[in-house]
Every structure is written in structure tokens, then in C-alpha cells.
User: Fold this.
Amino acid sequence: MPRRAKPTVLIVGGGASGALMARQAWERFGRNLRVVVVERSGSLGRGIAYASPEDGHVLNVRAEAMGGFPEKPGDFWAWLEATGRSKLPGIAGPGGFVPRHLYGDYLESLSVPLREQGVLEVVRGVCVGIVPRAGGVLLRLEDGREIAGDAAVLATGNEAAPDDGTTESGWARHVTRIAPDADVLIKGAGLTMIDTVVTLTRCGHRGRIFVVSRRGLLPRVSDDTVPLKRAEPPPLGLPVSRTLAWARREVDAHVAAGGNWRAVIDSLRPYLQTIWRSWPMPARQRFVRHLRPYWDVHRHRTAPAPYASVAEAMAVGRLKPIAARVLDLREDDAGLRVTLRRRGADVPETLTVDHVIDCTGVSSNPYTCPNPVIRALLAAGLIRPDASGMGIEVAATGHLVAADGNPTPRLYGIGPVARAAFWEIIAISEIRQQAAEIAARLHGEIGG
Assistant:
């Protein structure tokens, strides 16, 4: 009898989600596995988040909690110590915020045993389609290559919003080439904005910086607060308004007792996906439309050091947050003319700047997503937009949901791709857990 071929798992995307998925698949299957990762850059574990070489671009979670395994959250710090990187200048112990490029090194190191056993192949290329076929799937690459496997995992990470030809991406390295006296308008006030300001500051930028966002909110800053220990889980099944009222009462009570609001927010983390999935779709839509920005600035906080660059620039009047909506952007002889309407104002106003940098975050509309594999899956009816407006629909099992409403066998989505299903799924702690769960399901589907 001929030997059965090794099960083959195809992973589209080689960032953090793809790297953790590859490692968890190996943890479940062992040597009896072939993993093929298709990644545009040809690297593994970098993606957008961990590709920056700047020491000033740091993790917004402490090193001691960033391990790649659900059962070993301290594994990243152990790796830093084992490799001597914990002694590098600026590394302030397991409770510190480490440069992100070091975390990229760590993620890449997780693939070492897979490479040594001949389990892993990283293919440099762009996936433009995933085709189900009898007993498996087929990846189609931009250059005409095809790769067959037993199952595929979509791990494309945070997709940048489509380029309109006028703005520059906050994730690009062009920021280092901006003239020191140039006036800059940054669209978006989240963590990518803070990275951009850190880079501009390092490069000696002296010009004005306008940070424009719909509500004018800036990320809050992390501190040494320890999460509150909960005697019982939060109530489930409440309307959004009552859930919010409950959370505010919890914060008020804890602060009145001498505590910190951060302890309450962080104590909710193990329950966030359950709360999200307990809400009916209209409730999720209301949350996304009205409350998500306020939640994000409290939940996804920044490390103290990078925020100091923003605070210092505001203190001297060089950086000005503006609560407004950009209405129009056009170029003329004077520069880039930005028309915006401030929150609560009736009359638009115009600013003229030298650069407009888009830090609005990720693309949530799959129809305008620049990634060709997303567009191809939509056209083939293998995925569909989620009604929440946060991306594509993913089942609780991690399977992608087809246009007919049924989960697509042997086709999964992990990490930010699955944000519409799980809400909080962009942080390492959630991604590593999902990777382990999908690996177990893959073993049940294609193992043996």
C-alpha cells in the first residue's frame, strides 16, 4: 500500500498570525505535516506590525505577556533572556515595552524547528485566489504558480486602506524623508499616528502636525496597573447601553476605592469575545457606529515612551489634535489643500500642508480591500461581508462563511481577518489562542 502523503496546510500571509498558525499546526501534527506559507515579502513573522526597524516603535503590551503560546505567555521574555537580547539598551525587564522588531525576531525563531524538520516552506509571492477542490484547496499565485493542499488559512493581517493617490501611508518608511520644516496633516489618531510622530521626532521634524480624527480622541497610556480579579464574569445578553452602564459602575466603584480604571478594562479581556458574540447583530452595529472609538482608546493603549513624543509636541504647540472630518483633498501650487469640517461646526475650513499621512488604520470594507485574494474570494462567493461592517464573516469555528451563509470546509480565517466574528482578535494573546484552536480543528479535518 502506498504511503499516505503528509497533510498539507496552506497559509496565506506570513505576519504574526501566519507565523503563530504555522507553529501551532506543527505543535499539533508534528513531523507528519507540510506547511506552505505564501508571503509577499518572503519573510515570516514580520508583517506590517513587526517590520519596522526603529527602536522607538515598541510593543504596547509588556514583554512578559507576549509569548506565542496560550500556555506559555512568558515565552517571549524567556527567549529574550536566552538570546541575550534582554541585556540590550532600553530593555527594562519583563514588565517593559520592547522594540517591535525584536518581537519579529522572536516570531521568526518559532519556525526554526519546522525548518529543521523540513516541515515548512515559505513561498515569496502574492496569492490571487483560493479554489476549493475535491479533498482540499488550491492556491493561485500572481505569477501563475499553483499550490495544492488539504486546507488553507487566511492570515492576511491588517490590510491597509486603499491608496487614493494623494495621501501617504503611515506604515511606509517615506516618513523619514519628510523635510524638518514641512507641515504635516495626519488622518487618524490611533497607534499608527503615534508611531509616525515618533519617527518624525527622531528625524528632527520641527513643522506643524495636525492630527485629524472624527472625535479627536488620542490613545490612553499604559501604566503599572494590575487587572482587577473578578469574582464572577460580566453579565451577558444585556443591550449595549446596559453593558456600558454596568462597566461605568464598575469603573466608578473601583476608582472610588482607590483603584484605576485600567484595572477594570483589563479585567474584561477574557470575556470580550463572549460579550461580543452574545450581542445580536443590531447591537454590534450600534457599538461599531457609536462606541468603538471610545473603547479602542481605552483598551488599545500606548506605551509611555512613544506617547511622550506626542505629549511634548502638544505641549509646545507643534502638534494639534482636531476633531473633524476630511471632506476634500487636492493639490495646487501652494501644497496640499485639505478641506475639513470640525465636529459640531456648520462651515468647512481649509488647511494647506506639505504632506498628508493616512493613519486611519485598516480597511474594513472587503469590496475596497487592496488585497487581490480577498477580492477573488468575494467574486467566487467563498466569503461575504459581515453585517457589522468590520470585515468578512467568519464562523465561531474559524471557518470563512460563504455567500450562501454556510461555513466553507477547509478554509479558515485567523487574526484580524476574523475581527467581525470575535471583535478582539488583533492582539497576540487572542491570536495565539485562535491558532491553537484552528490547529486542533485542522487535525480533526485532515489529520490521521
